[in-house]
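Q: Convert this sequence to structure tokens.
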Amino acid sequence: MKKLIIVLIMFFSTEFLYCEDSQNGIDSLLKLDFSVPDIPALKALGNENSTILRPTTSGELGVQLSKFFDGSSLSLPSAFAIEVAPFLLGNQPDSINGFIDRGKLCDQFKNNFRVSIGSLKDTIDNSTNIAIGFRWTFDINLRDKLKKENERLEITSDLNTQYENEYAYSIGHTYSEVLKNDTLYKLAKKYARKRLKAIAFNKLIDTIWNTDKLDIAFAGVFNSKDSTGIETKFKSINAWITYSQGTCLGNWGQLLIGGNLRIVNNDLQDNQLFNYGIGVRFYVGANKLKAFIESGYDYDELKSHRKYFQINSGVELNLSVKTWIVYNIGWEREVQDGTNSSHFITNLDFKYNIAELINLFI
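A:
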């Protein structure tokens, strides 16, 4: 428990440092703080109670720690994954127009490409499962919504004056003195414009968190006797496709429909088996706090044609600027060889987007 507390203190300390820096810079406010998406490399390891790989807009670098909760107590996470968007590192847009430009289809193919790697300790034989994933997320109508909202932004003279006064005070001058100095007045106008855009942009986030998206991902899983990669062998290859729809639901909901196909290596019979799953998830809430419910079906040929029927629900909470916690509880029914069994499932995930912290030091 002490080790867990130390890990959490380290993460939240870095978050505090980031928040302090954000308060000192206007451009740092111009970021999409949508939740960090599910990471394919972690999903492929099979430690999550869902067949759906959730698509969402994220930053350059995301981290996910999973299995904090084993159903009875908190512990150090048994699974870890990191995802990076190589073409976005150090190149995140800092304005609405920047995101609009990034939303072109040809640019999305490059900018929304992400690579992930994850690891999970096998509790049966103490070996290590390692996964490498690749994904593309296509924002179907985000660009159009951003354009429409950008056109609605109105900069009033009252707000302009308020922030120009604020700038004058910050540099130790009166507003009258700034008006008489062309250079200072230009800087004051620039400051006011950034402040207004930042405020408008952050309000905009709550209206576009549930835009329509299409997510395609692949991941390969390998097993090693230990974490050094000794005697590594192929275990499975996974593919996902997920479509999210939120436009027809306004700003309060989002529907996800997805499927998963897995080709698993069967060491006992030296052949490959096909497993698959389908699921539907529905979100209700806002960008900062969402509740969800989902149902799914999974077929596992490797485990004697075992079938799973699942109902799952949970909460996704944005604790701070780039920190998310996802808790879920559900019920799973298993059918195998003519026998049925049911049990409850729980999981606690910690998701963190650390790219902005890295940018503070480079």
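The mean pLDDT is 77.
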